[in-house]
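S.,

Sequence below, as promised.
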Amino acid sequence: MKNELDFFEKVYEICREIPRGRVSSYGAIAKTIGSPMASRMVGWAMNKSHSVSPNVPAHRVVNRNGLLSGKKFFGTDTMMQQLLENEGVSIENDKVVDFEKLFWNPMKEL
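The prediction came back faster than expected:
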């Protein structure tokens, strides 16, 4: 259990660095913390992040194609999209428009 908590906290630290109006991916975060095969575990961390303090901007983490694959964990089907759109990120068909342009790669940015 301790290792899982350490993993989650590392994920949260990176997510808190994602700038407003930008997005990252589960895989990019997993690679950054040295666990390149743990994308799904990053998703689990995002699911648990809603009760963490300080706040974790989990809405800024999408899948490798820019899809809002975690949207069902935000209370309503549209909340993740609304949060991103409030930051100026355009979404069409549950996908980030200009994903490559808005992608924040923690391996390069941190």
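Strands lie at 24-25, 61-62, 91-92, 95-96.

Coffee later?
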